[in-house]
């Protein structure tokens, strides 16, 4: 099988910067290069651009501009939310409630806090990767200082009932954080309707540049300072602003939100075509994640008798970029924490494949995948030590 095309199906990992976004960023590197904190026209121009994006991001998520803080990406926003709330509420309590399927940007800060003496409850999920709101209710104690549940999962695509979870947290007086990195541009994100007190987003997941994101902090939420230094971000996240990156994020969120209604319909139809096509043409295959409450661009399937990384290598040779939740780089052959938490049957656990669509994908891309994937899985099963050889 020779390389025929180039099909990028890993938009949950990152997305290409849109041409309009790159164009918007360009002047802020070498012409409008001023430091927003300085006191002359060139600086005011940069400052103005940054504040315009703050307004735009706020409008996109139903917040006020003073509640939006720029960060160096989604990981930083999650770290700030979790460690910041923990530090500011230490005297009040030491308990955090989160889920077992969070991104490492949430799980690892929680683990770091556990080493400092905080206690963390990692809520289980059902077979579709959903957190049941009643579980949150049961987990909250009078020492709970934060509930953090992601809006949508990056691996299996499951959308969480965050509004119901947030309501429970609020009724108990506990702030609610949501990692909405995968949600922006996929479905409407509104901090009021979601009931979020903190919300993380990342530009490179919706057509913006890497290394820039934002944390929404509801007015009145007790959160510590993230970075000490200058007075940027109202003294709470010091450091000269990534002006070109912020400008790019502003353009990207504007386009992502405007395109969402149409794009999400096309994506969901294409996603379902892919899922049906794969399940119909390849035996011993199952869908991971929720059948309907899932991101419009997410396909995640598990093939019995094959190994995820072998699938990726063969797809790569065919020009297809995809991802797996079953890495065998560790000797343990452990599937990802997300698939494990969903209780994926062991016979399927090693052969998962994630395909995440984007606006540049075409119907031909899908046809190509549906043409080559059955051959790839068939060949791997022929030589598989896991059984299933024919
Ligand atoms: C990508 C991602 C992050 C991390 O964002 P970065 O900007 O890459 O640091 C966090 N959470 C989720 C759900 C993600 O998909």
Automatic annotation (TrEMBL):
GO terms for molecular function: cysteine desulfurase activity. It holds the Pfam family Aminotran_5. Belongs to the class-V pyridoxal-phosphate-dependent aminotransferase family. NifS/IscS subfamily. It comes from Methanoculleus caldifontis. Its main location: cytoplasm. The lineage of its organism: Archaea, Methanobacteriati, Methanobacteriota, Stenosarchaea group, Methanomicrobia. This is Cysteine desulfurase IscS. It is found in: Cytoplasm. Pathway: Cofactor biosynthesis; iron-sulfur cluster biosynthesis.
């Amino acid at each position: 099988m020779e390389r025929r095309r180039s099909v990028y199906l890993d938009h949950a990992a990152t997305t290409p910067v849109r041409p309009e976004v790159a164009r918007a960023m360009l002047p802020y590197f070498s012409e409008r290069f001023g430091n927003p904190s300085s006191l002359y026209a060139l600086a005011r121009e940069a400052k103005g651009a940054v504040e315009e994006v703050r307004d735009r991001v706020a409008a996109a998520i139903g917040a006020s501009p003073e509640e939006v803080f720029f960060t160096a990406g989604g990981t930083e926003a999650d770290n700030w939310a979790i460690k910041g709330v923990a530090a500011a509420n230490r005297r009040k309590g030491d308990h955090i409630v989160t889920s077992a399927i969070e991104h490492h940007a949430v799980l690892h800060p929680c683990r770091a806090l556990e080493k400092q003496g905080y206690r963390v409850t990692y809520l289980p999920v059902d077979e579709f990767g959903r957190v049941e709101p009643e579980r949150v209710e049961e987990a909250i104690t009078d020492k709970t200082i934060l509930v953090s549940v992601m809006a949508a999962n990056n691996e299996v695509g499951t959308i969480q009932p965050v509004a119901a979870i947030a309501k429970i947290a609020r009724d108990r007086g506990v702030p609610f954080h949501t990692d909405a990195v995968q949600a922006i541009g996929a479905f409407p994100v509104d901090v009021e309707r979601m009931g979020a007190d903190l919300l993380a987003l990342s530009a490179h997941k919706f057509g913006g540049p890497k290394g820039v994101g934002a944390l929404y902090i509801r007015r009145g939420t007790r959160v510590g300072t993230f970075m000490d230094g200058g007075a940027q971000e109202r003294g709470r996240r010091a450091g000269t602003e990534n002006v070109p990156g912020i400008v790019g994020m502003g353009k990207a969120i504007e386009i992502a939100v405007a395109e969402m209604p149409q794009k999400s319909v096309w994506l969901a139809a294409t996603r379902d075509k892919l899922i049906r096509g794969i399940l119909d043409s390849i035996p011993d295959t199952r869908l991971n994640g929720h059948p309907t409450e899932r991101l419009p661009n997410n396909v995640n399937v598990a093939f019995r008798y094959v190994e995820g990384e072998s699938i990726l290598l063969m797809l790569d040779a065919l020009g297809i970029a995809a991802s797996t939740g079953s890495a065998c780089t560790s000797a343990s052959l452990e599937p990802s924490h997300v698939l494990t938490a969903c209780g994926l049957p062991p016979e399927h656990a090693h052969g998962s494949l994630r395909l995440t669509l984007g606006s540049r994908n075409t119907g031909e891309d899908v046809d190509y995948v549906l043409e080559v994937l059955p051959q790839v899985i068939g060949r791997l099963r022929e030589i598989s030590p896991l059984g299933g050889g024919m």
